[in-house]
Amino acid sequence: MLEHFSYRADKPISKLAEQLNEDIDTMIYQKLSYRPIMQWLRENDYLITEVNQETGQTYTLPTEKGLSAGISCEKRINSKGEEYFSILYGRQIQELIVQNMASVLNPETYSDSES
Known about the structure:
By secondary structure, the protein is an alpha+beta fold.
């Protein structure tokens, strides 16, 4: 499956998971969720979870390591006037995720090859 991965565009992590799932034979494998990818990115210091002290809401941001690896972040305003962060994953980080998929899916067995 992953040997056929090719970068298409910067995208949110959910869209990357959808792309990775395109070639999965669901009779053999379960589709990949974005959650283990996010967890791996946090555990390997590409992302950090912060808490807004005013609202108590949690949000995810890229670390310096994440920014250097191709994660971008932009603050936006939704239709209710609330701020949120839009995070996009570029070519470098997408390829890193694919190269480390064994570690993403089995975090106790493997370690980040880029750390």
